[in-house]
Design a protein that fits this description.
The protein is globular and about 60 Å long. The protein has a domain of about 130 residues. It contains eight helices and two strands; from the N terminus they run ααααααββαα. The protein is about 55% helix and about 0% strand.
Length: about 190
């Protein structure tokens, strides 16, 4: 699935209970963190026509960040960086992280048909890869439907609860976004 979908699922996970703004951001980012290994695409693209290409995306995406060791690191960092509710933040961060892995097992097949397994036990073991034969392509309709459903939920939740993922970047912009949503979709009485 795409990073936006992972972010929205992480945001929904962060809002399953009361957390402060910082902890909600940590849980949300834990749901995106496995794809940090995808940043290897930048040096790969920049060096692909050189005498020493760096195949960092091709070789390491779904390897470095999609495993139990990285889950432990992300969970520990989330707990450490949380100001309040450290255990709750850690629990939701590990859930958010693993939802990312589950989503990738379900719908992350590449356009060329390659099924990306999740090497869950790396670096401890080469065994224990998660895979599913029915994995749908990244651009398949189920991914669009899931993204659309979480996007609708995010708009509804922002309207209802008064906060959105924008709060991670700017509380002021978030307040303006929520105000615009509420103004646009206010319950008007008709007489």
């Amino acid at each position: 699935m795409n990073p936006i979908t992972h972010l929205l699922i992480g945001w929904a996970t962060a809002n399953t209970t009361e957390l402060d703004r910082r902890s909600r951001a940590l849980v949300t980012l834990a749901g995106v963190a496995p794809d940090l290994d995808g940043l290897g695409v930048i040096p790969e693209v920049l060096t692909r026509h050189t005498s020493h290409p760096l195949p960092w995306f091709s070789e390491y995406h779904h390897m470095l960040g999609h495993n139990l060791a990285f889950a432990a690191i992300v969970t520990a960092l989330s707990a450490r960086l949380a100001r309040t509710s450290r255990w709750k933040t850690a629990l939701l961060a590990v859930i958010s992280f693993h939802l990312h892995l589950l989503c990738d097992v379900l719908g992350a097949r590449s356009p060329d048909g390659y099924q990306w397994p999740v090497p869950y036990l790396l670096p401890f073991s080469q065994h224990g890869q998660w895979a599913w034969r029915g994995q749908w392509a990244l651009n398949a309709w189920p991914n669009f439907a899931i993204t659309g459903a979480f996007l609708l939920w995010t708009f509804w939740y922002a309207w209802h609860a008064g906060r959105s993922p924008i709060e991670m970047v700017s509380p002021k912009a978030d307040a303006e976004f929520v105000a615009a949503l509420r103004q646009r979709f206010s319950r008007r009485r008709t007489h």
